Amino acid sequence: MNVQDLKPQVEQILRDSNKDVKLRMTEVCELLEKNIAYYDWVGFYFRNGDKEELKLKAFAGEPTDHEIIPFGKGICGQVAVSNQNFVVPDVKAQDNYIACSINVKAEIVIPLFVNGENVGQIDIDSHTADPFTAEDEEFLVWVNEKVAAIL
Ligand code: SME
Fold it and tell me: pTM of the prediction?
C-alpha cells in the first residue's frame, strides 16, 4: 500500500477521543507497520520529563530493549538534538547507531514538534535496504503534525 492511502485512517484513529492518546498512537504504529511492507518496526519516542533522554511511548513490532535513549546516542538521540529528519539507507554505515535487531537494514527518524519545540519523534526500522524516499519523509512529517495536534 502507498503511504498516501493511509492518511484517512491515520486521521480517523487520532480523532477518536474515546481512546487515550497512547492507545491512539499505538494504533497508528500498528496501521503503518501492517500496511507498509518495508515498515517493520514503528515507534514514537518522547523527551522523558526534564531529562536529557528519550522514552518509548508507543510502538508496533518486536519489543525493544531500548525504551530509554540518551540525547546524542544512536539515530534517535541525534535527532533529539539536531531537530532534523534523519534518513539512514544503510545502518551498517553509521558509527553512532543503536542496533535493536540484527534484521534491521535501514531507519528513518522524523522529529515531532509542538509549538516549534522538538518534543519527540517517530522512528521506523526496515528490514529492506535503502527503502525510504522523500514521500516517506513527507508522510511522516504529516503524521507527526497530526499527532502533535492531540498532545
Ligand atoms: N536504532 C535506533 C534505536 C531505536 S530502535 O531502532 C527501536 C537508534 O539508533 O537510535
Answer: 0.97
